[in-house]
Prior knowledge:
The protein is an alpha+beta fold. The chain has a single domain, classed as Beta Polymerase, domain 2. Strands 3-4-5-2-1-6 form a six-stranded mixed β-sheet. It is globular. The termini are far apart.
Amino acid sequence: MSDIDKLTATIIEGLQEKKGRHIVIADLSNIEETICKRFVIASGGSPSQVQALAQSVGEMLRDKMDTRPIAVDGLRCGWWVAMDYSDVIVHIFLPEQRDFYDLEHLWADAPLTEIPEED
């Protein structure tokens, strides 16, 4: 398993721990001039859940991989949080903002992987 795969799996684990919904991985690795290799996109049902999802991802990556984000933006507003881990950027949205920005389809050539929801 590559470092990017481990990073992605740990991010997903952090999102699932706090019941993140509609988790999708957009693989940008074969698209030239992108800012990262992958987007991990998820939804939370409220601003406080979006913040809790971001906190869970941050804690999981610190504990399991001794990794911290380069930057985090949006924690105060709670409707869209972006966490930059260099090769992987995590986007956590409220559903309305996710629909509006539609990051999954920003790059039409990026293969998407939907992560099954846990009960």
